[in-house]
Input
Amino acid sequence: MRLFALCAGIVSLSAHAAEWSDTEVQLLHGSSYREPFNPDDVAKSIVTIQHADGQAWGRNFFFIDILKSNSQDEHASEAYAEGYTSLSLSKLTGHSWSWGIVRDVNLTAGINYGYKSYPHYGVNPRVLLPGVTVDFNLPGFAFFNVDMLAFIDRGRFDGRDNGCNDETWQVTPVWNLPFSLGRAKFSFEGFADFIGSHGDCHAQQLMQPQLRWDVGNHFDHPGKFFLGIEQQYWHNKFGIRGLQESLPQALAVWKF
Output
């Protein structure tokens, strides 16, 4: 609850000073998640609060996931958040960093922070991510950005080093491609994390593309309510060799 209150406060302050802002709540549900040392498929319901805003010097982005598992995962509760600030070199220097298909270059700093409760122990991801983000100007895309970050893993398992406290790299493309079919409006959006091996963790890939249908557009409220599907694919989940996750998730989104 403290994490939720902190994020709500950040949204309020950021939106007050922002040149633009976008906040949404997502509801997701899937039935075949995989967890370490668990042979069973796990069903989870997820509430995601996501916010982005643009400032005179760059932009901010963060999200928080609240997850609840079914009995196949001991009814575990999880909270997980990521936050990033990107400083536009064009805005900071007063000179354009645009050339060819490159729109801008940004200095980025991020943090991943989470907790998962089990009856006898906790799992605590902790990662720092400094680096560079390149914004591309691609036809048809609302945006297409690529993060190139250092991945400084300081995660904990039951209060101890999780065996992966080391440094590596992360490359993350993020995109939003809107399109229409007749009167219906859609968007294809999402991200893909490519993370190098480090410590006892193997290289992993996490992809979460979404297909959204703008339902509100059919009721004179475009851009407010969406239904769709998110496909989650995770190779070597948590850096564990051979732990694979691939499942569709039902999706509902409210934008504010």
